[in-house]
Design a protein that fits this description.
The protein has 3 helices and 4 strands; from the N terminus they run αββαββα. It is of the alpha+beta class. It is globular. The two termini are about 25 Å apart.
Amino acid sequence: MKRLNEYEVEERLEGLHDWSVVDDEIVRVYTLDSFPAALDFVQEVGSLAEHLNHHPRIVIDYKKVTLAVTTHDAGGLTGKDFELAEACDAI
């Protein structure tokens, strides 16, 4: 998949809620109601990532879950990253 240029990244980022670009990744922190809710969310993200064959970096810190997404094969952000971000927001 083709790496997006800076303009394309900014344009796609406008369509997402609470995501930002950090070092060639898009990153969002989700705050859930409890630790078990955070684990359930991560399980759903994991299933989604397997289905899309595109896997985020996931950090769990009690009720906070941080997702960071990039396309390593492309050396940066692609449409695939934004597709995963949109799908995670829909959970």
